[in-house]
Amino acid sequence: MISLNLNAVRAKQAESDHIAAAMADFWGRSGGNYKELPPARMKPIPARRDWVDPETILKRKPRPLTLAERRALRKMADSL
């Protein structure tokens, strides 16, 4: 793409040359060798559940019997 503002390009040229020199220095010190690694596979964190519907909890785990209900059930079992 052609830049309409050549002053901006010329202003960045010094910075670009400095970065290119630093890269050449780095590659020169490391021997120019690099090892390509496989990309990191990120597992997304599941959405946080701040609120759970009370009916869902009751469907999953029924409430335990109260003392009165256990006594009534015991009376019914004894009467059989």
Characterization of the model:
The protein is mainly alpha-helical and 80 residues long. It has 3 helices and no strands. It is rod-shaped and about 100 Å long. The mean pLDDT is 83.
Give a concise summary.
The protein is an all-alpha fold.
Labels describing this entry:
rod-shaped, 80 residues, 55% helix, mainly alpha, 0% strand
Layout of strands and helices, then pairs:
Layout: H1 6-29, H2 54-60, H3 67-79
Strand residues, percent: under 5%
Distance between the ends: 93 Å
Give the overall form. rod-shaped
Quantity of strands, as a count: 0
Report the order of strands and helices. Answer: HHH
* Individual helix count: 3
Strand-pairing-aware structural class: mainly alpha
Q: State Rg.
A: 36 Å
Determine the mean pLDDT.
83
Measured as a percent range, the helix fraction is 55-70%
Major sheet, described briefly?
A: none
Low-pLDDT ranges: none
